[in-house]
Amino acid sequence: MFTNRKSITGLVILGLFALLAALADVVAPFGPLEKDYTALKQPPSATHWLGTTHLGEDIFSQIAHGTRGVLLVGLTAGVLATLVAVIVGVSAGFLTGWRGESLSALSNVFLVLPAIPLMIIVASQYDDPSLFLISAVLAITGWAWGARVLRAQTMSLRSRDFVQAARANGEPLWRIIAVEMLPNLTAVIASSFVGTVTAAVLGLTTLAFVGVIPITNLNWGTILYWAQQNGAFPEFWWWYVPAGLAIALLGAALSLISFGIDEYVNPRLRSAGERARLQKKRTKRSTA
Amino acid sequence: MRLLLRRAAFYLFTAWAAITINFFLPRMLKGDPVSAYLQKNQGLVSPEAADALRTLFGLDTGKSLAEQYADYWVLLLSGDLGRSFSHGLAPVADVIASALPWTVGLVGIATVLSFLLGTTLGTLVGWFRGGRGDVIVPVATFFSAVPYFWMGLIAIAVFATGLGWFPASHAYGKGTTPEFSAQFIGEVIAHGTLPALTVVLASLGGWVLGMRNMMITVLDEDYVTVAQAKGLSRRRVVFAYAARNAVLPQLSSFALALGFIVGGTLVMELVFSYPGVGKLLLDATNAKDYPLMQGLFLVITLTVLVANLLADVAYAALDPRTRQGEV
């Protein structure tokens, strides 16, 4: 995975965002809410790299500080959702009979429930939801896909010889699951983790844009919320283009990482392009 | 047949679960916005309507939870979802019924279009792998990561306000009344094109990538090689052999992703001020109109469930194995 071009590109972009979040205080020339009433709605310039808002706040500084909220919520939600997905998915794949069936039914129900409306309704019940609460809501609506994939993978592992052998040896159940099976599920778990983080980032920014999350919680979606509320569209492009691009870039980086994992799991995907090119070359040579 | 029964059981179970979640959601609320509202508007709400609201929101504390649940079902089966606070106490069911066709029309058409287009494109990119078409992969990756609402905002800025090709908001012109006439239909199409295009563009990437990966996996199968060796036309090999099999997982992931897609597109309606259920939900949230929020969640979930059912039927039509009984 770490030799794959796609996943390296993704990891580098993700790393840059992480650096931006960690060093926001150093990198950002202004405080995110620092107002400069002499420079309202200014286009990008040497002092304000990405221009200013209607209150003279520096947009680059807002994006740098907003990265923190996005990454923090995205990763927390990803960890929580993956935990639930592993517990439910692996048990659903391992258990037979009604217990396995009902766990699988549970994840199917959560897959069908429309996530964003559910998030909007739950988040709107709280006046001032904390970052952790927001992550938890995103995790509740985001674990089902991973659980489904993990269940399928566990079911195919369950009947393999090495698991049968471990069973015949009388290994306890927790050991079979933790030592024999989990290492074989790592790639699937990693891929579903990346997937949930992507979904959580999109969910968070959507909720912030809609205005369900309090504006004190600064993230990229909040910037877009302010931009729309204060008539930034269409002329003040520097206000709304960078934040949206940042979301898309982070999402693309995460997808690249998960492509890398997919290609690691499915070697056919890895070599598809190269093999086709080789074949073409060979046929050209033979016809020439 | 067994598969059919299993699917039917799944739909019934999910519908039951959605309704039950809807029953418990307001009971987990802090505070009690509904009785506060009833207090404030005493006399305006008829006693029956107030009773219905109390049942829906779990305020009839005199009854046990089981009794409340039974009452709730009776109300639902009679089509009573309570009264909407922000729409002059109009029945929630009526308010939703006026918004639902817009969403189903717009999001439904756009989603199906995007699926068909993306799958076709993915088929071709997968077949011509290693060629120039591979450029589409990074492009599609980027577009599939763009949030719908942001793409909508950009589309309005460029095509509506900038170039003036399309109207920027609403489903039809301000002075027009909905009627069955060429002019009205024309306006609906003109207003719906930009939001629909945005949904298509934002969701296309995912389908292209999914189909491409499935195609590449399928193209390695022996039956594709055999089909080529038999000298079948390329068209036939691509569409009747490779794509025919690659589309099945694509279709089942379409069914499963529906809840996610619909959720994302609802926010689009806010951007375009489109009078669908998404806009209604966000307005209800801002107005703290709890009965409308609950009703909307239920209706949106059930709509997704119906769409899921349709995707399932399409899957069964395409995959003969599901029709052979034992699977």
TrEMBL record, chain A:
Short name of one Pfam family: OppC_N
The keyword Transport is assigned to this record: yes
Domain ABC transmembrane type-1: 71-258
Entry's transmembrane regions: 70-98, 105-124, 130-150, 185-216, 236-261
CDD domains according to UniProt: TM_PBP2
Lineage top rank: taxon: Bacteria
Homology family: Belongs to the binding-protein-dependent transport system permease family.
Stated name of the protein: ABC transporter permease
TrEMBL record, chain B:
Phylogenetic lineage: Bacteria, Bacillati, Actinomycetota, Actinomycetes, Micrococcales
Keyword rRNA-binding: no
SUPFAM superfamilies: MetI-like
Domain ABC transmembrane type-1, first and last residues per copy: 100-311
Membrane topology of the entry: Multi-pass membrane protein
Record keywords: Membrane, Transmembrane, Transmembrane helix, Transport
The protein's name in its UniProt record: ABC transporter permease
InterPro entries recorded: MetI-like, MetI-like_sf
Tagged with keyword Transmembrane helix: yes
Major localization class: membrane
The family this protein is said to belong to: Belongs to the binding-protein-dependent transport system permease family.
Intracellular or extracellular location(s): Cell membrane; Membrane
Transmembrane segments: 9-29, 102-128, 135-168, 188-209, 254-275, 295-318
Gene3D superfamilies: MetI-like
